[in-house]
Structures are given as C-alpha cells and as structure tokens.
C-alpha cells in the first residue's frame, strides 16, 4: 500500500522532517512533481491551515499557497485579525498531481488526489501537527477535512464550528480544535465569489476566536 510512514524520521523537528519529505516516495506522485512541498511558517504557530495539495506555482517554487489561492487565503486570514507570519500553512498531500490537456499540451491541470494518496501522505501532516502543537487547525476543503476528520466528514454540513480532533489521531494530551471551511480555490471558482469569500472569512473568524 502507499505509505509515507517509512520515510518519516524517527526523531528530529520540523526541519528534519522537511528534509526527509524531500525524498518521499510513499506514493507515485513524486514521479511527476517537481519537488515535495512541505509546510511552511512559524514554529510557534498557534494556527495551522491545511490545503489539499500544492498547485502549479507551489510545485515550481517549493512553497505552499504562493499562487492565486494562497493570495486569497492570506487576505481572508488577515481580515480576521491574524498575522499570516504567525500561522503555518501546509497541505494534506505534499506533491502536485496533474494531467496534461488531451493532445499533449504543456499546461498542467490540477487533478484531485485519490483517497489512498491522501492516506499515504497523512503521516507527514500528523507529524507537523505533533511538532507544532497548534491551538486550532483549519482544514480548507473536502480533501484536507477528510484527511484529518475521516472520510465520512462533510464540509458543507460541519463547516464553521469548533470541533474536537477525532480520538486517537494525535497521541498527545493537548489536542487542537479543528475548523472546516471551503477551499480558497472554491472561492475563486464560485459563481457568487463575494458570498463564498464572506463564508470563508466567517469560518476563519470562528478559528480566530479560539486562539488565545
Ligand atoms: N491549493 C492548495 O490546496 N494548496 C496550495 O498550497 C496551493 C493551492
């Protein structure tokens, strides 16, 4: 089965994990991607934001949320009074998955990861959370939400609420709250962008309210 587990270092902090993740071959996505895109941000972050997977720009630059979705996310986060420099951003899946247009064009079209690819990558995400010990984790969209909360989780039903982590996911005393919301890319694609954006901001406000 696909599994990043064997590639995780048995000790060390975020830097050691980032270095090890660069060589991850826990699923086939490493083959076509440019590089692993590990999480980025303050080691002291009280807030962690989790996306789906790196996009085209992130794959090229090696950092999460540096493209259009990232700019929108940054604006929404700052709007609820959080300095982006105090947060940590990462993805459920750490390699870019894409297809080419039929006929063999050069454009790279984002493709949703399979459940088994999300499951394979989960040890990296859980390690990030274990090392950061944030107060609140915001899961952006269905992929991140299911990665953390389980496959039956529905963002449309349970977004914008302070939720506990599922029991046993993180083996530690202090458990973060989880807030689910839509993905910033979904805001960019929405027919009514303004109301989709307002919904994202409202959910982020719930997350912000739980920060000390
Ligand atoms: N979308 C994501 O889910 N993550 C990124 O890093 C960029 C876009």
From TrEMBL:
Residues 38-205 form the Uracil-DNA glycosylase-like domain. It holds the Pfam family UDG. This is Type-4 uracil-DNA glycosylase. Keywords: 4Fe-4S, DNA damage, DNA repair, Hydrolase, Iron, Iron-sulfur, Metal-binding. GO terms for biological process: DNA repair. It comes from the Bacteria. SUPFAM superfamilies: Uracil-DNA glycosylase-like (SSF52141). Belongs to the uracil-DNA glycosylase (UDG) superfamily. Type 4 (UDGa) family. PANTHER family: TYPE-4 URACIL-DNA GLYCOSYLASE, TYPE-5 URACIL-DNA GLYCOSYLASE. One of its GO terms (molecular function) is 4 iron, 4 sulfur cluster binding.
